[in-house]
Amino acid sequence: MAASAAADRVAVPTAPDRIVIENCAIATVDADDTEYASGHVVLAGNRIEAVGAGRAPEDLENVVRRIDATGHLVTPGLVNTHHHFYQWLTRGLATDHNLFDWLVALYPTWARVDGPMAYTAAQGSLAMMARGGVTTAADHHYIHPRGAGDLSAAIIRAAREIGVRFTLARGSMDRGESDGGLPPDFAVESLDDALAATEATVREHHDASFDAMTQVAVAPCSPFSVSTELMRRGAELARRLGVRLHTHGSETVEEEKFCHELFGMGPTDYFESTGWLGEDVWMAHCVHMTDSDIDAFARTGTGVAHCPSSNARLAAGIARVPDLLAAGVPVGLGVDGTASNESGELHTELRNALLVNRLGDHREAALDARKALRLGTYGGARVLGRAAETGSLEAGKLADLVLWRMDTLAHSSIADPVTALVFGAPAPVTASFVNGRRIVEDGRLLTVDEDAVARSTRDEARRLATLAAPS
C-alpha cells in the first residue's frame, strides 16, 4: 500500500533559484537595441526571466542573491568566434612577420604540441578571455601531431573547468611540406585519419541541446594546408552529422594568389565549388573580399569572424566589415590565436574593430559604439549558430551576461556607458555569468586559480621551446 501510494504521488517541480541584478544601465542588444538607463535583470536558473526598467519586483520568490549594480553597465556576454588556444604558449615570437613567414617560423614549434600543452594553453587562453567578459568561445584547433593523443578532449576539459560555453572547431591538415603545404609532414594527418578523428570528436562531445555547453564544428584549416578532397568530404561530413563548418578564408593577398595559381579561381569561388558556403559555415578573417565575394556570402548566409588585431599584427589588411554588414552577412569578432594577438582578450576587439574600420573607405561612418558591441555579442552568437540562445538579453534566453564597472577613473566622465565601454579603456568586470553560474567576481575567476594557470602555462611554454629548439 505504501509503495503504491508513493508511486501515485506527483512530483512538484522545484522553482528555480533567482538572482536579481538592479540599479544598472542595460544594453540588451536585442533587435530594437533596447537600452535602460537604470533597470533590472532577473535570472531564474540558467535562463533570463525578465529584463526591464527600474527595480525588480520586491515579491519575487526564491531570490538567493540581489546585486546592487549601481555604476555598472550590463550587457550580453561577449562571444569569441575564432581562436587558436594552443598559441598561448608561443606568444611574442615572430613579431615582425607577415602571415606566411609567421607560419613558416612557428609551425616547427607548434608541431611539438602534446596533450598537457594543449590543455594548459587552453586554460590560459580561456581564463584571459573569461575574466574579460567572454561567456562563449570558439577554438579552431588544427594541429594534431602524430602521437600527441586526444588534444580535442584536453581542450574541452579545460573549457568545462573554466566554465565558458564552448565550440571546438575540430581542425585538420593533410597537406604537409612534401605536398607543397606549410606545416611539417609529421604535424598533418592523412585524409582518412582526419575525417575519422573529426567524426569521432563530434559523436563524443557535440551537444545539440538549447543550453549546450560544448559543441563541435568540422574545421579543415585553410586552402593552403588542406587538400580539396578534405574540404569537400569535410563539408559532407558536417552536414551528415548536423554540425557547423569553419575554416580560414581570404586572409591575405598571398592566399588569393595561391588559390588562383592552384585552383584557377579565387578563394570564395573555390569554397563554393567544395560546398563551403552556407548558413552553417563561418570563416575567419575574410579581409580580401570583392563585391562578388560579399554578394556570395550574403546570398548563402555564410558568416565571418572578424579579427582586427590579428589582421593588423600580421599586416593582412582591413576587412570590409561595413560592406559585409550592409549586405546582410553575419559578422562576429574573434581574438584569433595569441601568437598573433598577444593580449588574448576580446573586449579590446570592440574598440579595435571600430578604430581599424574607420581607417578604411567608410572612415568615421564605418562603425559606431553600438554596432561594435553588437559584433561582439549578438553578431558572434549568430555566426556560431546560437543567436536563439544567447547574444542578447531577452526573457527566455540563456543567462550569459556581464556586469562592467563604469564608475571608476577610467570611465566615470563618459556619460554614455556603451560609448565608455567601446571607446574607453578596458572596463573592469565585476561579474560574469554563464548558464546562470557566476564565473568571475571583481575581475578574478572563481572556477580556477589564475596564479596556478600562469605558472603552468609558463612551464609548458618553456618545455615546448626546449622541445622545439634545434639540437
TrEMBL record:
User: Could you tell me which SUPFAM superfamilies the record lists for this protein?
Assistant: Composite domain of metallo-dependent hydrolases, Metallo-dependent hydrolases
Q: Could you tell me which residue ranges the Amidohydrolase-related domain spans? A: 73-437
Catalytic EC class: hydrolase
What name is this protein filed under? 8-oxoguanine deaminase
Entry's InterPro entries? Amidohydro-rel (IPR006680), Metal-dep_hydrolase_composite (IPR011059), Metal_Hydrolase (IPR032466), MTA/SAH_deaminase (IPR050287)
**Sorted UniProt keywords:** Hydrolase
Keyword set includes Repressor = no
NCBIfam families attached to this UniProt entry: PRK08203.1
Hydrolase as a keyword?
A: yes
Its Gene Ontology molecular function terms? Answer: 8-oxoguanine deaminase activity
EC number(s) from the headed UniProt entry: 3.5.4.32
